[in-house]
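Would you mind writing out the residues of a protein together with its fold in token form for me to study?
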Amino acid sequence: MEPQGNWLEELEDVAGVAVQYFNDLFSSSPCTRIDECLEAVPQKVTLDMQQALSCEFTADEIKASLFQMGPTKAPGLEAPTQSAFAPGRLITDNVLVVYEALHTMHGRRNGKTGSLALKLDVSKAYDRVEWNFLRQIMLKLGFPGVWVDRVMSCVSSTSFSILINGKSFEASGQCLNMEKSSVYFSSNTLPKKRESIKALLGVSEVDRFESDLGLPTLVGRRKYHTFSYLKDRVWKKLQGWKGKNLSRARKEILIKAMAQSISMYTIGIFQLPIKLCEELQSMCARYWWGQIGNERKIHWLSWDKLSRPKSEGEMGFKNLRQFNLAMLAKQGCRLMQDQETLVFKCLKARYFPRCHFLEAFDPPNSSYTWKSIMVVKPILQKRSCWRVGNGETIWILKDAWLPNSPTNKVLLPI
């Protein structure tokens, strides 16, 4: 159907509408303020580096580069702050950083300097880079022109193929969807500055961002209401399965792979209310025992027994409360071990700038993500033991560092 509402049936006409849609969607917007951006970019590439990049590449260099790449991976991190598609990094780190930033902005009511968070809708980010901007940035950083030309010939030749009734049609381009982009201001931002920034960027203002990667960006006192969307998602999944006559084995797979995995990202960042965990487990239990609608079925075993591992003769379903604490403990372990990530630097600067993570505490104005992680700190303290290196950061009498001791601590004072 055309944008004007006319119905089309011919293949070429239908293809023309589809190609035009994607051409408009991916069309490039003019870059009118590149020079202002480039003024803030310093030169990083030295003369020695320029000479090395300008040389002809050898077969050994090509082999070394290719062997660094996995079957579907790029060679190394794209940026130090990259949190996804890299070993040892989790995409949930982005959520923790964003949530911490928005929580700080939400509580900032005084002060002369306001702050803002800009949310841009950039689908297929790789294909939506403005190539002229990319070229100018590389040149300003000091990359030699011959090297820049090689890079641009690789990245600027993308296209999209639309398949209609077995016939292929091409479309290409890039753009930024400003209609779905928005900006959020802290409370102490002056109204005059807000209006000038919105007019400059061409985006709308929001009172709060609804979600980031499908997760809430602000959690207030009504925590059960905030996370109730998980219950709705699980209920919709189970409703679609109840009318099917499935074996026990298929029900087990559906519960483990679908119903209990819906909350995976959420329970790795937030502590869910106990009531919500029990209700989610109750929904899965009713489906397991064959309950349809309002009818009642006998539950021959409690969920606590069904959630025991198969090695003990049970089904191995998840106890959501315990699984929630385990996933939060994983975040705590990463804060103890991986100190180069952006989320660690963010949380350390705010909550434990002069001490170790296990010595941190929960201040009254902390975010809900930090409060959730602090819930599992006693578990980590009880189960953690130092591996002694040079011993500079270990308290001999206070810390657990003896691997063969019942408490891992010194029992008698020295």
